């Protein structure tokens, strides 16, 4: 059984609330940023893809504990000196943490991770489910 909860369509109330709270974190969270994460389910594996442009591999931490997959990243930007005149500041820096409940149905020791062109891709093979066996109980 899949424990990962899919996200509704982009216009759903859940999506709108998620985006609202993400914007609040960005505004008042002192450097907190929240990149998007895609979760794809295949027959034999889950694939998680997180947008982390500008984040170096050494600043990414991925952990799995008790069925909770956590992706953390730090992004640093060059500091301006006092003589710099910044007209607009759109490049973000700060900290990102995202936890996803993946349950106990993935092979923890076989998860692969790669960072290519700002995308962190995690491939987590599923544990083959034997299915629940139905056994008839005789009534005496």
Distance between the termini: 33 Å
- Tertiary shape: elongated
- The secondary-structure class comes to mainly beta
Assembly status: single chain
Number of strands: 7
N-to-C SSE string, H for helix and E for strand:
HEEEEEEE
- Number of helices in the DSSP assignment: 1
Taken as a percent bin, the fraction of beta residues is 25-35%
The main sheet comes to:
4 strands, antiparallel
pLDDT < 50 runs, ≥5 residues: 22-30
Amount of helix: 10-25%
- Strand order in space, largest sheet: 1-2-7-6
Mean pLDDT: 77
| CA-atom Rg in angstroms | 20 Å
Task: Report what the structure shows.
By secondary structure, the protein is mainly beta. 11% of the residues lie in helices and 33% in strands. The protein contains one helix and seven strands. The strands form two sheets. A four-stranded antiparallel beta sheet has the order 1-2-7-6, with no helix packed on it. Strands 3-4-5 form a three-stranded antiparallel beta sheet, with no helix packed on it. The longest helix is centred in the first third of the chain and has 16 residues, at 13-28. The two termini are 33 Å apart. Mean pLDDT is 77; it is low at 22-30.
Q: How are the secondary structure elements laid out?
A:
Blueprint: H1 13-28, E1 37-41, E2 45-51, E3 60-65, E4 68-75, E5 94-101, E6 112-116, E7 119-125
Antiparallel strand pairs: 1-2, 2-7, 3-4, 4-5, 6-7
């Amino acid at each position: 059984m899949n424990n990962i909860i899919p996200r509704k369509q982009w216009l759903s109330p859940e999506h709108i609330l998620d985006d609202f709270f993400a914007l609040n974190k960005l505004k008042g969270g002192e450097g907190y940023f929240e990149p998007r994460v895609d979760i794809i389910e295949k027959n034999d594996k889950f694939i998680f893809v997180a947008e982390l442009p500008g984040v170096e591999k050494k600043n990414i931490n991925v952990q799995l504990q008790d069925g909770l997959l956590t992706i953390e990243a730090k992004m640093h930007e060059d500091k301006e000196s006092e003589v710099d005149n910044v007209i607009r500041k759109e490049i973000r820096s700060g900290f990102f943490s995202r936890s996803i409940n993946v349950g106990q149905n993935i092979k923890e020791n076989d998860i692969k991770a790669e960072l290519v062109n700002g995308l962190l891709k995690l491939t987590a093979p599923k544990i083959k489910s034997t299915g629940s066996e139905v056994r008839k109980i005789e009534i005496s």
